[in-house]
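Entry 14. Two folds queued back to back today. First construct below, sequence then structure tokens.
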Amino acid sequence: MQEPLLYHEVHGTHGPFILFVHGMISSRAQWIPNLEALEAFGRPVIVELFGHGRSPSPEDPECYTPDNYVNEFERIRCKLGVDRWFLCGQSLGASLTLRYALYHPERIIAQIFTNSQSALSDETWDDALKLLSQRLEDEGHKLIETLPLHPSHSRHLKPEIKNALIEDAKLIDIQGFSYTGLYTVAKCSVRKMINKNQIPTLLIVGKHDKQFSPYREFAQQTMPELEVLVLDGGHAVNIDAAEQFNKVTQDFIARFI
């Protein structure tokens, strides 16, 4: 099996391995408020998406497809010598970890995901993503800084987390970001497959992300093996309600080890 291309780092020294995947315009800094607590009972494996943070920006569009991300996660698992592990996906990252669990249920013990419209949407966004790609050629980072998900727009992040996310956002590669839109986001929905889920799953919802409400309802009606917990946070619930997120994550994982 090929070596993984995605940047990844392993934290902790004992306990189960847990793969963590962030969303758009984020990085390993997404998990700053969680790592210390997570390391007390497990070994978080933090990856960064192509075009983001310290990961490369391959020229081949196929690298950005959701199916290839599944292959990359498998390469990381094999490199670590892990038979089965846990998953945790945030936003766009959740669409990728959910797909991974659907493709390889035998490799996943249980999974957690947070608010992710991209995972559960029936929209294509093709025209909007093509327009974004065209604008990126001319405007580059100036355009990325105007997007709602850019950390500079957050009013609730602690300064140390906000600054770390902003600094990592400067590492975003323009072509890699464009390809993420065109080949990852455009193809990432698992809405039509989610009824085949076989893995114990916890959806941790940030209640202030009102746009996610219909997707939460769809998941509850459609996805087998699903539990839902609502915390006092927004789209980035693992940051907004970090202490609660860490506790419910530990409690959930402890049920399977």
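Second construct, same run, same settings:
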Amino acid sequence: MEHFGLLSLLPTLTVIVLALFTKKTFEALVGGSLVGFLIISISSFFTDFTNSLLEVMQDATIGWVILVCGLFGSLIHLLAQSGGTTAFSSYLLKYVKNRKGALLATWLLGLSIFIDDYLNALTVGASMKKVTDRFKVPREMLAYIVDSTAAPICVLIPLSTWAIYISGLLESEGIVEKGQGLAGYFQAIPYITYGWVAAILVPLVALNLIPALGAMKRAEKRAEQGILIPPNSDSITLKMPEGISDRTPKLSFFVLPIIVLIAATVFFDIDALKGVITAIVFTVVFFAFQKVMSFTQAMQGIFTGFKTMFYALAIVVMSFVLKDVNDQLGLTQFIIESVSPIINKEFLPLIAFVSLALVTFATGSFWGVYAISLPIIIPLAQSMGVDIWLSIGAVISAGAFGSHACFYGDATVLSASATGCNNMAHVMTQLPYTLIAGGITSIIYLILGHVI
């Protein structure tokens, strides 16, 4: 595949500069995408941009993302309308007595909802806000913990959407026989270092063994004054309505729909769309039977909840437009070709992780990078005599890092939306921790490359 050389870096650099300057994500993505299409063709850049928008909107993956995220918004809205979210928060507050307990409870809840990073981010973020608010935890800290238990945890669990997807790639590349993808994935899990490091880092931060750093330290000082939500958070916040029923909210109004959501997602072969639709149908019927709300009120709640996800979804859609222009510019291929001359046996895991982490951070594409890079890294590892599962683990780690760190990545945007935190504020406050985790991961891969 041909590429545009150093020019292929320009759209991503434009996005980063605009985002830091304007503090806005959507506008930065539009600007970076337009720059990319200008590089490809000055005469037709606007037509190419609009065509890309149409192609993205027609893509089945985008349709799935829009439906899943929008319907998650609908389900969470119904749970809030019923008072179930409040009941869940009140229940936790009986046992959570301090700030450290609130943060650890958020982490543990995130660990338990491991099936899908979207489900994880939206459910944990929306349900824990009132708990952490009680102890003056800034929303940026809540968003960091929620985001850290999304992709970094999903890659460690074989029963997740990430594992199912990568298992399919392992089969298609002939690394394992058909039907043995998950068995192969099990062998890579010990080497998915970023997931392990990011997961372990959270309780250390929650217990203040690792102090608040940089922008997070400033957020903590602001929260001490009672200002928990960073400025400019309204547009991305998943709105939570007050209960509309005269009935006393019950814990079951929250717990049962979530159990159905998880069970249905597993039943339908880890399909979050079928899972959330099943959960919404159950919730509407259950609430009607319990006389919590009428069918009309439930339908209004479904549409209102879907609408609250609009801005977050707009960012996700525009990130796919940026991915499209980066693919046309050959960004991934350029970076891989640039690092290939310095690759040797001992440094392959480290270089694979660092280079692909930069690609995923720059492009906001994680599964797409897996599809492109695994057919390149796996033959390299085999020809150099590098442990194949170590190499695969490094590639998977790179995607987890990108999902965690990229400020227009889908899980990052949804974590910000669910916790009611400005997206840029979330990314800038968690950046020191993602860099620490990335640095530790790099050192581990350097060591493993020399000893395995």
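Quick look at the second one. The mean pLDDT is 90. The two ends are 32 Å apart (CA to CA).
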